[in-house]
Amino acid sequence: MGRSSTVKETQALFQSLRSAYAATPNNLKIIDVYVGFAVLTAVIQVVYMAVVGSFPFNSFLSGVLSCIGTAVLAVCLRIQVNKDNKEFKDVAPERAFADFILCNLVLHLVIMNFMG
Amino acid sequence: MASPESAVNGPTMTAGAASKSLRNAFGGVIAFIILVLIGVLAFSIRLFSVIKYESVIHEFDPYFNYRVTQFLSKNGIYDFWNWFDDRTWYPLGRVIGGTVYPGLTLTAGTIWKVVNSLNIPLSVETVCVFTAPIFSAFASWAAYLLTKEVKGPGAGLTAAALLAMVPSYISRSVAGSYDNEAVAIFALVFTFYLYIKTLNTGSLFYATLNALAYFYMVCSWGGYTFIINLIPMHVLLCIVTGRYSSRLYIAYAPLVVLGTLLASLVPVVGFNAVLTSEHFASFLVFIIIHVVALAYYIKGILSPKMFKVAVTLVVSAGLAVCCAVIAILIAVVASSPTKGWSGRSLTLLDPTYASKYIPIIASVSEHQPPTWPSYFMDINVLAFLVPAGIIACFMPLTDSSSFVILYIVTSVYFSGVMVRLMLVLAPAACILSGIALSEAFNVLTRSIKFQLPGIAGNPSIASEENGSSTVVAPNDIPKTEEAAKEKPAKKNRKKEKENVEKKPTPSKTEKRLLVLPLEASVIAVLLLVLLGAFYVVHCVWAAAEAYSAPSIVLTSHSNDGGLHVFDDFREAYSWLSHNTDVDDKVASWWDYGYQTTAMANRTVLVDNNTWNNTHIATVGTAMSSPEKQAWEIFHSLDVKYVLVVFGGVVGYPSDDINKFLWMVRIGGGVFPHIKEPDYLRDGQYRIDAQATPTMLNCLMYKLSYFRFVETDGKGFDRVRRTEIGKKHFKLTHFEEVFTTHHWMVRIYKLKPQRNRIRGKTKKSKSSRSVSSKRDVRGKRNPWH
Q: Which residue ranges run through the membrane (chain A) (predicted)?
C-alpha cells in the first residue's frame, strides 16, 4: 500500500520536475548541458584512474580538477545570467561571460602548468 | 585622528546634489591623504632597529631567507627551483626548492631585480632588510579595504591606523626581520578582503583575484591552512544560519577548485593539498554547498507539495549513501597514525600533543602558550575594544560581519595555544577595534552635531540606525520612572524589564535618532582620543625598546651611560670564514645553523629547519656524552669544528648551557642510553659542585667551562649565579681554537686520531686486546 503511493508520488515528482525544467530558457539549458558534460568527463577520468592506477598523480589531479573547475565556473555563469535572479539584475550577461572566460583562462593556465 | 573621520562620516544634511558630491570628493581626498600617512607611519615605526643598531638582518630564520635570496639573485630562478643544498644537514643535504616557502624570497628577488634594472643600486641585503616595513604598509591598506567592505570607510581608516602600529605585528616585521610573516600577513588580510568583496558583490572577477591572492598566501607561509579552514567554516555558518545566497556559492566554489590547484603548484605543499586532513574541511563544505545549492534550486522550480515529496525521497535514499561514504572516510583517516594531520597542526588542536610526542616542537620558545600580560603588551588597548567591536558587528549582522566575528574567535583560540600566533590575532583585533571606535565616534559626534545651537537639523534621517546599546539606556530611564509611577508599588523586577524592552520598540518605529547629552559626548570624545594617545605611546615604546633588538648584536649600558656593544656572534662567524677551509664541517646546536651557513659560509650538521629529528638527536647525544664518545660521533660525521655559545662571563641568558636540557631530552628521545635524570641532582638542574658526574663530564659542560676559571679566579657563572663544579680540567679530544672577546662563542677543533694507541696493546696479547677493545667499545658506544 505505502509502496505504491510512494511510487505514484515519485512519478508525480519526476513529472513536475520535468515540466518545470522544460520552462527554463534555452541559453540556460545549454549551460546545463555543458556542466553535465564536464561532470561526466570527470567521472570517466576517475573510473579510468581506478582501473589503471593513479600514477602520475599530478596529471590525474589536474584532469579531474579542470573538469570540476570548469563545471563550477559554468554554474556561476548560469547564476549570473539567469534572469530570475534579482541580485544580479545590473550585471550585463556579456560582463558575466567575460568573467567566466577570464576565470577559465586562469584555471587552464594552472592546469597546463600542473599537468606535467 | 578624530576630526577627519567625523568629516568623512558626517551625513550630508543640506539638499543639493552638487554640494553632496563635492563633500564626497573632499572626503575621498582626505581619506587618500590619511591612507598615505598611515603607510608612511607603518614604514617608519619599524625603522627603530636600523636607527639604533644598523641595517642588519635579525635573529636566525631571516638569515636562511637572506641566503636563499642571495642565491636567487645570483643564479636566477631555474637554479633556485632545482637547488640541492649540500652545505647543510651534512651528510644528508636539503632540497631547497621543495622545502622552502618561496613567496618571500621571490618577492624580495623581484623587487631587487626591478629596482636594479631602474639603475637604483640597492644591494640584496638592503632590499631584504626593508621588505618587511614596505609590506606592513601594504597590510595596513589591505586592512582599510577589508574593514571598508564590512562597515564603511571610517572604520576602515581606524583599522588601518591601528594595524600600522600594533606591537604584535611590529615584533615580526621590523626592518631586518626578513621572515615569512612579513609578507604573509599582507597576503592574509588581502585574501580575506577579496573574499568579502566577492561575497558582497557576487562578481566572478573578484573570485579569480581571490584565488590568486590565496595562491600568494600559500607561497608565503605555512599558516595558509588557517585561511582554507576559516573560509569553509564561515560558509558553513552562513548556510546553517540561513544566509545562503548564490553570491556565497560564487565566492566559495571557484576558490576551492582554483585554490587547491594553485596550492598543489607550490612544491612545498604539492599533493598535501588533497591528501592531508588540513584541507578536508574545504572539500567537505564544497560538497555540502553543492547539495544546498541543488536543494534551493529544486525548491525554486517545484511547488511546495512536490518539494516535500522530493525531500522525503532524498532523505531516505541519501542517508544510506551518506553513512556508507562516512564509514569509508573514517576508515581511511583512522588508518594513519596521526589521522592525517601534521604534527604542528595537531599541536594547535591539542596543545599538550607536542610536549608528549615531539619534543622539538615543544622546545621552540615561540610555540609556548602566551602569558596573560603578553596580550596587553602585544595588542594593548585593542584587547578591550574587541568585545565592543563584536557587539557592533551584530548591528546589523551581515555576511561580512559574521566572517569577521568568526575570524576573531578562532584567532583568539589559536593565539592562546602558541605565542607565535598572536600575529594572526593582530589584524582581527585591529579590524574589530576599528569598527568599535568608528561606531563610538559616529554616535558621539552625531550627538554633538545635533545639539550644537544653530545646526538643529532634521533628526528623523533614516539613513542611520539607532545607535549602540549605550544610547538606549539613558533615554529609557526617565520613561521607566514614569511607568513606575503609574503602576502600583508592588511590582516584579520582571515587569520592569518588560517595560524597558517595550519602550525601545515604539521609539524605533518612530525612527527618531537617539542622542547623548552634549557634555557627556564631548568628554567621551576627549577620553577616546586620550585612549588612542595611550595606545600610540605604548606602540612606539614597544617598537623602540622591546622589539627592535636584532639579537645578533647585543648592547648594554655601562655605568656612565655609555653604550657597550657585544658583537661576538659576527666575530666568531667571520673568524670561521677566514681561518678554516671552505669544506670544513661545523657542529653546533641547531639554533645557529642558519647563521653559520649564511655568515660563516661553512657546512653545518643541523639547522633551524629541524626536519630530521634523528640527526638533531645525534648532535644532542654528542653534546651530552663524555668527550671520547662525543669525539667518535663527531668524527663519524666528518666534523672538524664544534661551536658552543656561552654566556657565563657577560650574563647572556640564552646560551647553550641553558638549552642543554633540551639537548638531553631530544637526544634521549632517540637514543635511550641518554637519560635526563642522570643530569639532574634531586630533580634540579645544576652545574655547581653538587652536579651529577654525568653532567660534569659531558661535552657541553667541558666545552663551555674550559679555562673559565682563568677569567675571575673563582669560576663564577653570571647566568646560573653559582661557582662551577669542575674548575680545572684538560680537554683530551678537542682543542680550543677561538674564543670571542666576551667569551660568548667558543670554537673547538677535533683533535686528529692518534697514530699509535698506547697502553693496552703492550700488556695483553694482540687477539685478546682487539676483541676486548671491540667489546668495550660495543658496550659504551652505540656507533659500532
A: 33-51, 57-77, 97-115
Q: Which three cell numbers stand for residue B33?
A: 591623504
How far A18 CA lies from chain B's nearest CA (Å)? 10
| Residue B14: pLDDT band with limits 50, 70, 90 | low
Q: Which residues of B touch A21 (CB under 8 A)?
A: 301
Contact across the interface for B258 and A107, Cβ inside 8 Å: yes
Q: Which of B81, B200, B201, B204 is the best substitution to test chain A (most A C-beta atoms within 10 A)?
A: B204
B257/A68 touch (CB, cutoff 8 Å), yes or no: yes
- Contact A102/B204, CB-based, under 8 Å? yes
Strands B563-566 vs B603-604: parallel, antiparallel or unpaired: unpaired
Q: Are B379 and B167 in contact (CB under 8 A)?
A: yes
CA-to-CA distance for B91 and B85, rounded, in angstroms? Answer: 11
Q: What is the DSSP letter of B89?
A: T
Distance from CA of A31 to the nearest CA of B (A): 15
Please give the C-alpha separations between residue B99 and each of B62, B86, B104, B617, in angstroms, as whole numbers: 16, 14, 13, 21
Residue B754 has what DSSP assignment? P
The gap from C-alpha B306 to its chain's centroid, in whole angstroms, comes to 52
Indicate if ipTM > 0.85. yes
pLDDT digits (tens, 9 = 90+) for B245-272: 889 999 999 999 999 999 999 999 888 8
* Interface contact flag, B208 A103, Cβ < 8 Å: yes
Cell of B122: 640597492
Contacting A residues, span 6-35, partner chain B, CB-CB under 8 Å: 6, 9-10, 12-13, 16-17, 20-21, 23-24
Q: What is the number of other CB atoms lying within 10 angstroms of the CB of residue B81?
A: 13
d(CA B248, CA B399) in angstroms, rounded, equals 9
Q: Which of B210, B244, B261 to mutate to test the interface with A (most CBs of A within 10 A)?
A: B261
- CA-CA distance, A75 to B246, in Å (whole number)? 10
What distance in Å separates residue B200's CA from the closest CA in chain A?
A: 11
Sort strands B716-717 and B722-723 into parallel, antiparallel or unpaired: antiparallel
Q: Does A65 touch chain B (CB under 8 A)?
A: yes
Distance from CA of B399 to the nearest CA of A (A): 15
Beta pairing class for B585-587 and B603-604: parallel
Q: Are B247 and B235 in contact (CB under 8 A)?
A: no
Sequence-separated (6 or more) residues with CB below 8 Å from residue B407? B192, B230, B428, B431
* B243 SS3 class: coil
A114 touches chain B (CB under 8 A): yes
pLDDT digits (tens, 9 = 90+) for A86-104: 777 778 888 889 999 999 9
Lookup: cell for B450: 545635533
| Model pLDDT for residues B177-193, shown as the tens digit of each residue | 999 998 999 999 999 99
Task: Tell me if B724 sits within 8 A of B706, measured CB to CB.
Answer: no
Core vs surface per residue B170-208: b (16+ CB within 10 A) or e: bbbbbbbbbbbbbbbbbbbbbbbbbbbbbbbbbbbbbbb
B515 vs B512: CA distance, rounded Å: 9
Rounded to two decimals, what is the model's pTM?
0.83
